[in-house]
Write a structure and sequence with these properties.
Layout (H helix, E strand, L loop, with lengths): L2 H16 L1 H19 L6 H42 L1
Length: 87
């Protein structure tokens, strides 16, 4: 990946992380998962465990997604620094 591509990707990551729509969507997904857990009418312990696993999975997905975007921002900063040092 070229440094220009890294910078473009980093800019996109910054915009995504700062996006009101992105952050609202993450909050709504969290709230929906927690609500389904709290109000679940589980017939078996297995159903309850599956619901809990979905919540954990959603949180893990969110955490990894945000980490990937943060890494893209860091890569951008590093690419910009390399460009600056070459001048």
């Amino acid at each position: 990946m070229t440094e220009d591509e890294i910078i473009r990707l980093g800019n996109s990551a910054e915009q995504t992380l700062a996006s009101e729509a992105f952050n609202l969507a993450l909050k709504e997904l969290d709230a929906a998962q927690i609500e389904s857990w709290a109000n679940g009418q589980f017939k078996t312990p297995q159903e309850r465990e599956e619901a809990y696993a979905l919540i954990r999975g959603a949180r893990m997905f969110r955490s990894r997604l945000v980490a990937m975007l943060e890494n893209a921002k860091l890569s951008k900063a590093q690419a910009e620094r390399r460009i600056e040092l070459r001048r």
